[in-house]
Every structure is written in C-alpha cells, then in structure tokens.
Amino acid sequence: MEQSVLKNYTKYVSLNILGMIGLSCYILADTFFVSKALGAAGLAALNFSIGIYSLINGTGLMIGIGGATRYSILKSQNGGKLINTVFTTSLKLGILAGVLFAITGVLGTGTLAVLLGADAATLPLTKSYLSTILYFAPFFILNNIMLAFVRNDNNPKLSMIAMMTGSLSNIILDYIFMFPLGMGMFGAAFATGLAPVISLVVLSSHFIQGKSSLRWLQSRFQWKAVRDIFGLGLAAFITEVSSAIVLITFNLVILGLEGNLGVASYGIVANIALVGISVFTGIAQGIQPLISKAYGSGNSIIIKKLLQYAVITSLAISSVIYTLVFFCSDQMINVFNSEQNSAIALLARVGLRVYFAGFFFAGINIIVCMYLSAAERGMNAFIISMARGCVVLVPMVLMLSRIWGMTGVWLAFVMTEGLVSVLGMILVFWKKRTDVYKDTL
Hints:
The protein is mostly helical. The protein is 88% helix and 0% strand. It contains 15 helices and no strands. The longest helix has 75 residues, at 2-76.
C-alpha cells in the first residue's frame, strides 16, 4: 500500500509543482519585462496592482478548491447527481464573481489605484494594469475552477499542461506586446489576461475527448451547495486575500520608510518569493485530491502518510531555495534591476536573505492548511489562514518596522510563519488526541 500511496503522491505533486511554477510566472514575467521597459516606476506600479490580482485569484481558488474538494469526497462515496450539482454551482459562482470584478474595471480604477498607494509618478501605469486585469477577471476565476475540477477528475497531467501553456504564452506575449509593439503597461496586463483564456482552451480537451465525468446540469442555483463550497474553499481565499492585504500593508509601510525605491525593491523580493510559494502551493494542491478521496473512504493511514511525505518534501525544497537565494541574490536582483540602481540592489539583497528564511515554516503552513480543508476541517484551516495573513502578520510588520526599519519589515514574515507553524501543529495534534480519546469511549 505504501508504494501505491507514494506513487500517487509523486505523480500528483510533481505535476502540480510544475504547473504552479508556470502559473506563478504570470506575474514574474510581467516583473521582468516591466523592469526592462519602464524601470523603477513600472515596478512600483506593478507591485501596487498585484494585490487586486491576488483578490481575483483567491476568489477563483476558493470556488475551485472548495467545489473540487466536495466533488472528490462525494465521488469516493458514490454521490451520483450531487457531484455535477457541485460542478455546475461552482461554474455559476465563478461567472457571477468574474462579472462583478469586470464591472469594477469598467467603472474606473483611479480611486482604487490611489488607495493602493499609487502617487503622481505611478498612477497612470497602475490604472492601466489594474483596469485590464479586472476586465479579464472572469477568465482568471473560471480557469482556477476548471484547473481544480480537472485535477480532481483524475487528470492532473492536463491541469499541469494547461498551466504551463498559459504561462509560456504569457511570457511570449509579454515580450511581443511590450517591445516590438511598444504597448507598455497595458501590453503587460493584456498578455497576463490572455494566459487564462489559452489555459481554458487546453482544459476544454478534457471534455471534448469524453474523458470527463463532469456534466453541466440545468438546475436552479443551489444555495446549500454555495455555502458548502465557500466553507471548504474559504482558507484558500483567505490565503490569497491575505497576500493582497500583506502586499498593500508592506507597500504603505515601505513607502513611508524608503519611498518608491523601497517599494520597487520589495517588488523584486515579493515576485521571486511568488515562485517559491507556488512550489509549496503545488505540493498542497497535489495532495488535496488524494486526501479528500482518502477522507471520503475513511482511510486515516493514507492521510497520515500523505501529510508526512508533503512536510518532508517542503523542508527539502525550502533548503534548496534558501541556499540558492543566499548565494545567488545579486544575480537574481540584477535580472529585475534594469537601471542598476544601487539603493534598490542593497535593499533587495538584505530582503531576500532575511525574508526567505520564513520559507521553512511557510511551506508547512500552506500544506497543513490544505490538509485541514481537504479533510473537512475548514474552521481550523480558516484560523491558520487568518493568522498567516492578517491577525499576526499585519501587527508584526507595523511593530517590527518601527523597531528595525526595513530589516523589521523582512523579519515580520519570518516571525509570523514561525508562530503560525506552531499553531498549525497544535491544531493537527489536538485533533489526533481528540480522535484517540473518542476511540477509547
């Protein structure tokens, strides 16, 4: 049995890590090309906009992971028609949410850009990027939903191919739109917006080839299913939205400490970190279908093994990432610091070496959070997500930045992830102790 579990784990996790790395390159490619074409002002404007991208992405992940988790549990329990009720409700929710975001883009993004921290130098660039991303929100959200359902419908390979295809097209289109065509910030956003459209085209082959057990049902809106989807996917949403809140908080604090150059340096650190975090998210999303299936069939032994494999993988990858960042920080910074600004380079170098120490804890936290969601322990997952994103991190940034300035800002991430990992272990261990106690009654 152990070989079978390890084989499935390796298959799902490796494919999802590759796919998530590709997906994270949406913003990373923008960062690279924007830095080359628009310099520090472009980097700052992009960093102001990423928070809204995280909000859109989080909405798609909440609906997709929540719906796909319930789908896997029902499928392992022969849920019949209920399986496709969950699928249909998830798609309807995604369309509705996407339209609301798009309307926000149509109504205007000037005020929103100012609230996010844009000033006279960065406002036009921020508005251009924000409005375009909001127009494409329905595609971002539907793509996240379809990726989750196709993965849970026994086709993780196609999900990976779709994510990689979307990312590669984004990189190519970024270059074409920003340099030969000279489309500036709009070109960067337009390329990013087209990526989920291309990914959805790839995912459609799952249905065209007749491999899918997923079907659209003509039915009324199922509000009971909506509550269930939101409950199971809330932790994923909070994680993404928290990222947006953290990004905005960091930007505003750093703006007060070091101005736009400081925000640009944080943009470099945050965007490199995005790739690292995507690896941990790949592990977490890889184990989700397997844990949900094992949970639905009541197999706690498989769940325990999957969690052990995931934590060991996370720690190994964290060690590799931190080693690379510590010894290659200057080379990484130079890729995005097109103007060779020494102030940005110095701030980013310290930032990378301090901030990335938090990865040893962040990977475990992301995995534990997904494990709790996949096993219908949504409230515990919600607690961890809130602690990581708002409850602990925001006060930590405000407090430590007053004591140690920029070093305090970088340390806030490390301290928060460390404290939350202790909380996560307590929640997992407390549940096990409770289960043992129940078994003795």
